[in-house]
UniProtKB/TrEMBL annotation:
Gene3D superfamilies: alpha-amino acid ester hydrolase ( Helical cap domain), alpha/beta hydrolase, Galactose-binding domain-like. InterPro entries: AB_hydrolase_fold (IPR029058), CocE/Ser_esterase (IPR005674), Galactose-bd-like_sf (IPR008979), Xaa-Pro-like_dom (IPR000383), Xaa-Pro_dipept_C (IPR013736), Xaa-Pro_dipeptidyl-ppase/CocE (IPR050585). The keyword Chaperone does not apply. Pfam families: Peptidase_S15, PepX_C. It comes from Mesorhizobium shangrilense. The keyword DNA-binding does not apply. This is CocE/NonD family hydrolase. Residues 290-549 form the Xaa-Pro dipeptidyl-peptidase C-terminal domain. Keywords: Hydrolase. NCBIfam families: CocE_NonD (TIGR00976). GO terms for molecular function: hydrolase activity.
């Protein structure tokens, strides 16, 4: 991993983009020095994370690199964020896309632009690229989308398998803080910034509560889900992500379903661009982006369109740990996806706890499980955000969680078993309550008994037939359900065993059911269908350049960043709490003189045997300081529940030079809807 000094590039700190309704959006431009004489295509990144301070260093590392390779690059703040005018309605709203169409029109009409555009983004920016591409602006010829989704309900930080996940509150708490921050008076003017800040605070929302009001896959989630009409996207799409990330399945879905040019890259990484990829190996992501844009924005015949449909990293076994620096393995290139090299291998779940390659008549039976509510504490975060630093967000040894689960073990492997793609499991299950959930994990059992997490699937059993029209269970009645596991490519080595572990809870990832449940499985209807690498014949070789990025402008670090995580149980009360602190430290951008302090703390808590004890609190602190300016935002949201309702509370306090500028409080009751 190496930063490179970029020359022949100039930056425009603030370029205003006028919109038809009178609002102006703030952009930072990165331009080749001679672009006015020799126009170039433009690459747009369109996100809400404050281009002047919040993402400044990362913006420079990427956009200076693009400008140094013959592109104009524009980093634009979404309306109501950073220095852009207007208000932030919510994530991924239609107006945001409408604005983007005007942004593209404006950028492509500039004298330094050829009239052709691409988009890029990780997470929110990846969503934006897909959603704008589905609107088919004529200038947009190619996008690169990383760590994003095609389905806002099934694969985003709100619901998984029809269950509300704690990322809804972790991410919601972060946005609660970001959306309360002011514009910079050095940009918008000393006479305007306070009024703009007041307008933002008057319009401020508890987004996590708003998302929780939509517990079904309704029109709210369909808007912006490009899977509703894959044919709407015609431009070239490069989809990138990692197995540790929460959005892995999108890569495979896009490549499979898009009719236009589409390629995918999937590595071992968390929620980061792959040039910063952790666990390693990182790869030359920005060079791959340049190849993609050269092909589709400049028409250079460089072979980018002939790369394999999917390039995926086949991971070797690694002993479980909450943080892994580098994951051993190798790259595989699949010329087409779905791939003829991918086959299936079936296992049956038998009543004696065995995972067998044949369905044994004497192995049938009924087995039950009622998991401790803390089953899942050894698992990974749904979406590990902090993998760029040492961050204990990965899965640990699964034996403690296995102890609260119904387990089925295979015989010892006589040859390596390479899983690759999306495996499935079919279960025949009955619940003693009308509302229940289940989690199924695949783990690798080493000869010493270590249980290493491979992948998982969640299902709200009320959503067994539809996420849009859930129906409660009839207690005691068996239902046939099918779950798709999160995609993975990993070898179960010779001498190890495969385990299927089934639990009736999976906290803290998923919010618990309203009542403790007992699940009964009829093993005659339970089968695991693995997606495996059956042959390597016809696979393409894959080689990436080393990870590079542009050398950013100087930053003075006054206090280093840190990630802290702890898991505690109060023995007298049996209350377990997971605390995660993400502290960005304290640092100064030398170019603007702005000092930044930022931290976020999540506390997930639950008391054994009491689902109504589940609670999540997210607290955030943001401060911006210069000799002529000081603005601070402190905020907190808390969610808890009983059998019938969720309770959403929160507060935000904004300070100017230590004195209260504005404050708001939130208190809502949200009925549980088959949740």
């Amino acid at each position: 991993m190496l930063s490179v000094v970029i020359s022949g590039v100039r930056t425009v700190e603030t370029h205003w983009i006028p919109l038809a309704d009178g609002r102006k959006l703030a952009a930072r431009l990165f331009l080749p020095d001679d672009a006015e004489k020799n126009p170039v295509p433009v690459i747009l990144e369109y996100i809400p994370y404050r281009r002047r301070d919040g993402t400044r260093t990362g913006d420079e590392e990427m956009h200076l690199f693009f400008a140094g390779h013959g592109y104009a690059s524009a980093r634009v703040d979404i309306a109501g964020t950073g220095d852009s005018e207007g208000l932030l309605d919510d994530e991924y709203v239609k107006r945001e896309q409408d604005d983007a169409l005007e942004v593209l029109d404006h950028l492509c009409s500039q004298p330094w632009c050829t009239g052709v555009a691409g988009m890029i983004g990780n997470s929110w920016g990846g969503f934006s690229g897909l959603q704008v591409a589905a609107r088919r602006p004529p200038q947009l010829k190619a996008i690169v989308t990383s760590c994003s989704t095609d389905d806002r309900y099934a694969c985003d930080a709100h619901y998984n398998g029809g269950l509300v996940i704690n990322d809804n509150f972790g991410w919601g708490g972060a946005l609660f803080g970001y959306s309360a921050l002011p514009p910079d008076p050095a940009v918008v003017g000393e006479d305007r910034w306070r009024q703009m800040w007041k307008d933002r605070l008057d319009d401020h929302k508890n987004h996590a509560a708003e998302w929780l009001k939509h517990q079904r896959r309704d029109a709210f989630w369909k808007q912006g889900s490009v899977c509703e009409d894959f044919s709407a996207i015609e431009c070239a799409v490069l989809a990138v992500g990692g197995y540790l990330d929460g959005y892995t399945q999108t890569i495979f879905s896009l490549v499979k379903n898009l009719k236009g040019p589409a390629k995918g890259i999937c590595g071992p990484w968390g929620h980061k661009e792959p040039n910063y990829g952790v666990p390693g190996p990182a790869m030359g992501y920005l060079q791959e982006c340049i190849r993609w844009y050269d092909r589709w924005l400049k028409g250079i015949d460089n072979g980018a369109d002939s790369e394999p449909d999917i390039r995926l990293y086949l991971m070797d076994y690694a002993r479980p740990h909450s943080h892994i620096d580098v994951r051993p393995g190798r790259w595989l290139g699949f010329p087409q996806w779905p791939a003829t090299q991918i086959g299936g291998k079936a296992y049956w779940l038998n009543g004696d706890g065995k995972l067998s390659e044949t369905q044994e008549a004497n192995g049938a039976g009924q087995l039950t499980v009622s998991s401790p509510l803390t089953t899942g504490v050894q698992g990974q975060e749904w979406c590990p955000y902090g993998q760029g630093r040492i961050s204990a967000e990965g899965a640990r040894d699964q034996r403690a969680d296995d102890g609260g689960s119904l387990c089925f073990d295979s015989v010892v492997m006589e040859a390596d078993l390479p899983l690759a793609g999306i495996s499935k499991i079919r279960l025949r299950v009955a619940s003693d309550k009308p509302q229940a959930q289940l989690c199924v994990r695949l783990t690798d059992l080493a000869p010493d008994g270590t249980s290493a997490f491979i992948t998982f699937a969640l299902l709200n059993l009320a959503h067994r037939q539809s996420h849009e029209f859930p129906t409660p269970l009839t207690p005691g009645q068996f239902e046939d359900v099918e779950l798709d596991f999160k995609p993975v490519a990993q070898i179960i080595p010779t001498g190890h065993r495969l385990r299927v572990a089934i639990s009736s809870s999976y906290w803290p990832m998923a919010w618990p059911s309203p009542e403790r449940t007992m699940l009964t499985f009829d093993t005659r209807g339970c089968r695991l269908d693995l997606s495996v690498l059956a042959s390597e014949e016809g696979l393409a070789s894959v080689a990436f350049e080393e990870a590079l990025w542009a050398e950013p402008r100087p930053v003075t670090v006054k206090e280093p960043a840190r990630q802290l995580r702890s898991l505690t149980t109060d023995l007298p009360t049996e209350r377990t709490e997971l605390t995660a602190l993400s502290d960005d430290g304290r640092f100064v951008f030398e170019e603007t003189g702005t000092e930044i302090t930022s931290w976020r703390r999540k506390i997930y808590g639950i008391t054994d045997n009491d689902p109504a004890s589940c609670a999540t609190t997210v607290t955030c602190h943001e401060e911006l300081t210069r000799p002529d300016w000081n603005a601070r935002v402190d905020c907190e949201i808390t969610f808890n529940c009983d059998r019938d309702n969720f309770y959403a509370r929160g507060w935000v306090k904004a300070y100017e030079r230590g004195a209260i500028f504005a404050e708001r409080n939130y208190d809502e009751v949200i009925p549980r809807d088959c949740m």
